[in-house]
Design goal:
Structural class: alpha+beta
Strand content: 25-35%
Radius of gyration: 29 Å
Shape: elongated
Helix content: 25-40%
Largest sheet: 20 strands, antiparallel
């Protein structure tokens, strides 16, 4: 953290709470502040123009839940990182977070307001180009609202900061509220205490003034259209660490990117896509499995073109237990049809699709009919370890498995691909794996490059590498859905769902290619060693709602 930023909060916080009262009000300050750490209470002070707000809890019990996870080495690494952060944050003072800030600081809401344009006078055109067009960039506009849960502790902290050197305080009045301008190293920060229950901080004075306007009765983020419902519903996660609120998704994207040339060229078609998502609320929490993230997107059913269909989840059983990464889903053909329909509104996308169609026609393959039409059932693609043949150097191969109701078209497509391979001097051979007829593309002295076959009447697989084909085709092997890690990572995810993204962290780290990428960073290896796996899924109960869930499955802390 840069030094100028690391010192942003401390003097500003102290200067603001100084004006909350005095020692003479001891009895009043001793009383607890009700609701000061509540997300909705903070949102009522944030101006309605805010684009996004994140509420971070300071509840020690929720954060302490994380201590049950991680290897002893990872716990030490995290502890050291926090210690270094505290030293950097408070390097020039005798302030301690645990003693001076934690006792009074409630929940923290960080809101992003629309960027303030930089004044043209701040820009100087180069002498050699006096008439050049200057792009006026926009400054980010951040507002922080901190709940005050113990006024007396806050006052004591403020008094302690009054003795700090190198910090200048200047007080001004705005609509009866005292704004403190804190200047350090020539950089000002503005703060105010509202209702003796919330501390407001911002690097721009205008943001603090707008918050006072909101406090005085102007519309707030909590009353903004779309915000009320997401605040009331929230996201159900245990031991919530943070909640994220976006009441107007398309508006947020537009305004956050307004300072860039790309955003100013945002085509109407792209904006129409953004408007499919009306609002988003997300939550991060900790439970017995690890860190869980849930998000709910409210959609416009009139604009949402995607036809969601839940996935049976049976195709996972076609992969061996050694599979370390997998993505599954349902109905590629429907997704392709939707993409083709949407491309009519995007000339560049349509042109790209037409180019691929044209190129495949040269080899007698129809992209729509031969490739996508028969992919109408459940599908999955997985990464499987292998140290044999051409896969030895990377340590893994891949497999695609499809359920289809159109076996005839699928077989015709595979025959076309076999013929095409022959034209490139690749040997085509047949062999039996686990009682199944498998076709292999073989390269002399290297073995099978690719293999394909049918696992049952409706399920076809395509494997990269002969050893992967053997792992898929041999049904005597234990299947992925029976593995302990897969169960630990995915069993608690919402069901039914549209499919999974799954990653086994332990197995991933043993793959030679991955191992070589991370072997030089001991800290990375230590942190990854505490992660059991990653699971992600999505579901859509109706056309107006999409729900996402992710679990970072962590290993239990074995330290004694």
């Amino acid at each position: 953290m840069p030094e100028s930023k690391s010192k942003f909060l401390i003097p500003a916080v102290g200067a603001a709470v100084v004006i909350a009262g005095s020692i003479a009000a001891y009895t009043y300050f001793k009383a607890p502040s009700a609701g000061s750490s509540d997300a909705l209470g903070s949102a009522k002070l944030v101006p309605s123009t805010a684009l996004i707000a994140t509420y971070i809890t300071t509840d020690s019990q929720a954060w302490a839940k994380l201590q049950q996870f991680g290897t002893p080495e990872a716990q030490k690494l995290v502890a050291k990182g926090l210690e270094n952060f505290n030293k950097q944050m408070f390097s020039d003072s005798n302030v301690s977070y645990e003693k001076d800030i934690k006792p009074w600081a409630g929940g923290v809401m960080i809101a992003v307001l629309p960027p303030n344009p930089v004044k043209p006078a701040q820009f100087t055109a180069p002498d050699q180009a006096p008439n050049a067009l200057i792009n006026v960039q926009q400054k980010s506009n951040i507002l922080i609202v901190v709940g005050i849960k113990d006024k007396l502790s806050a006052l004591n902290f403020a008094n302690k900061l009054k003795s700090q050197k190198g910090v200048k305080f200047q007080e001004s009045d705005y609509k009866g509220q005292k704004i403190i301008e804190t200047t350090e190293n020539g950089k000002p920060t503005y703060s105010v205490v509202l209702n003796n229950s919330h501390l407001v901080l911002a690097p721009e004075k205008q943001a603090v003034e707008k918050t006072i306007d909101t406090f005085k009765g102007e519309s707030s983020f909590a009353s903004k259209e779309g915000a009320s419902s997401i605040f009331n519903k929230g996201v159900d996660v245990k031991n919530s660490l943070a909640q994220i609120y976006v009441p107007d998704y398309a508006g947020m994207i537009q305004q956050l990117a307004a300072g860039s040339q790309q955003a100013k060229q945002l085509p109407p078609q792209a904006l129409a896509q953004l408007k499919q998502i009306k609002s988003v609320v997300a939550g991060i929490g900790v439970d017995d499995a690890g860190v869980r993230v849930k998000a709910i997107a409210n959609l416009d059913p009139q604009l949402n073109k995607f036809q969601y269909q839940s996935s049976p989840g049976k195709i996972v059983g076609q992969f061996p237990t050694g599979t370390f990464a997998l993505i599954s889903g349902n109905g590629i053909s429907r997704g392709w049809e939707t993409l083709v329909e949407e491309s009519k509104n995007y000339p560049e996308m349509k042109q790209g699709i037409e180019q691929v169609r044209g190129q495949l026609k040269f080899v007698n393959i129809d992209l729509d009919k031969d490739i996508f039409s028969w992919m109408n059932g459940e599908f999955a693609v997985g990464a499987i370890p292998s140290n044999q043949g051409m896969l030895a150097s990377v340590g893994f191969g891949g497999a695609l498995v499809f359920d289809t109701s159109d076996r005839k078209t699928a077989e015709a497509t595979l025959t076309k691909l076999d013929t095409l391979a022959k034209n490139y001097q690749i040997d085509i051979a047949n062999r039996n794996i686990g009682g199944k007829d498998v076709t292999e593309w073989q390269i002399p002295r290297q073995g099978a490059l690719l293999a394909h076959g049918w696992l049952d009447q409706d399920t076809v697989f395509i494997a990269l590498g002969g050893p992967v084909a053997e792992a898929i085709g041999d049904r005597n092997n234990s299947s992925l859905d029976n593995s302990d890690t897969f169960k630990a990572v995915t069993s608690s995810l919402q069901k039914p769902n549209g499919g999974y993204f799954y990653l086994d962290m332990d197995k991933t780290q043993t793959v030679p290619l991955i191992k070589s990428l991370i072997s030089s960073d001991a800290n990375t290896i230590t942190i990854l060693g505490s992660i059991r796996g990653l699971g992600f899924t999505a579901t859509s109960p109706d056309k107006s709602t999409s729900q996402l869930e992710m679990l970072l499955a962590l290993k239990q802390n074995t330290a004694k």
